[in-house]
């Protein structure tokens, strides 16, 4: 499963309360390179493992400048400032 499919399925799995599918999607997303969108998804769908992993990886692997660039990407336009601050702090 690609990470794009995992993101798409995550919404459906959450809507229809399909916890096993949510877990499968989370497992897939734990394997992709760090990006700000993953923190947002983890918060939105209450995926604790993904949230912890994504925050750690963003802090570890991305510089402040890279995070700023990611924050400006169209797919991250809805990232709350709160999410961004959580990563940096």
Automatic annotation (TrEMBL):
InterPro entries: SKP1/BTB/POZ_sf. It comes from the Eukaryota. This is BTB domain-containing protein.
């Amino acid at each position: 499963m690609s990470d794009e499919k995992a993101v798409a399925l995550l919404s459906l799995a959450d809507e229809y309360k399909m916890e096993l599918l949510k877990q499968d999607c989370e497992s897939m997303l734990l394997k992709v390179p760090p990006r700000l969108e993953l923190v947002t998804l983890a918060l939105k769908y209450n995926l604790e493992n993904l949230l912890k992993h994504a925050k750690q990886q963003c802090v570890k692997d991305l510089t402040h400048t890279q995070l700023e660039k990611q924050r400006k990407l169209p797919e991250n336009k809805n990232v709350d400032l709160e999410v961004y601050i959580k990563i940096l702090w």
